[in-house]
TrEMBL record:
Domain ERCC1-like central: 3-66
Similarity-based family: Belongs to the ERCC1/RAD10/SWI10 family.
Record GO terms (molecular function): damaged DNA binding
Native organism: Solanum lycopersicum (Tomato)
Stored InterPro entries: ERCC1-like_central_dom (IPR047260), ERCC1/RAD10/SWI10 (IPR004579), Restrct_endonuc-II-like (IPR011335), RuvA_2-like (IPR010994)
Keyword terms of this UniProt record: DNA damage, DNA repair, DNA-binding, Nucleus
Name of the protein in question: ERCC1-like central domain-containing protein
Keyword DNA repair among UniProt keywords: yes
GO cellular component, one term: nucleus
Lineage of origin: Eukaryota, Viridiplantae, Streptophyta, Embryophyta, Tracheophyta
Gene Ontology biological-process annotations: DNA recombination; double-strand break repair
Length: 124
């Protein structure tokens, strides 16, 4: 059950800001149901949800948001090389437990992301 103060604070903001962030400190063992409700609330009210599993992580999020509040979006988006291997590396290393060496192996074995996606479990 989401506390009423979250709804009150969102209602209090109205539409006065382009970016509205909900910073959620996750400090309970069974997070699925409460986090689902917080996620639903943030989506329904056009808010960005940031979850931190420690107070230090939440503090780093606050620091980062404050540092970048007046910077252009392309500054924090980063630059990606245009070559195929760099783009494949960027896409596949987003998957947990896939490292750059795995990407090189997959790329040289299968040739393309399409062929990796079509590969059977035995081939992988």
């Amino acid at each position: 059950m989401i506390p009423d103060y979250l709804y009150f604070r969102i209602r209090e903001l109205q539409k006065n800001f382009r970016l509205r962030i909900i910073l959620c400190h996750v400090d309970v063992e069974d997070v699925m149901k409460p986090l689902l409700e917080v996620t639903r609330t943030s989506l329904l009210h056009d808010c960005t949800l940031l979850c931190g599993w420690s107070l230090e992580e939440c503090g780093r999020y606050l620091e980062t948001v404050k540092v970048y509040e007046n910077k252009p979006a392309d500054l924090i988006q980063g630059q990606m090389d245009g070559d195929y291997l760099s783009r494949l590396n960027h896409a596949l290393t987003a998957i947990r437990h896939v490292n750059k060496t795995d990407v090189v192996t997959l790329g040289s074995t299968f040739g393309s992301l399409s062929h990796v996606m079509d590969a059977s479990m035995e081939d992988l």
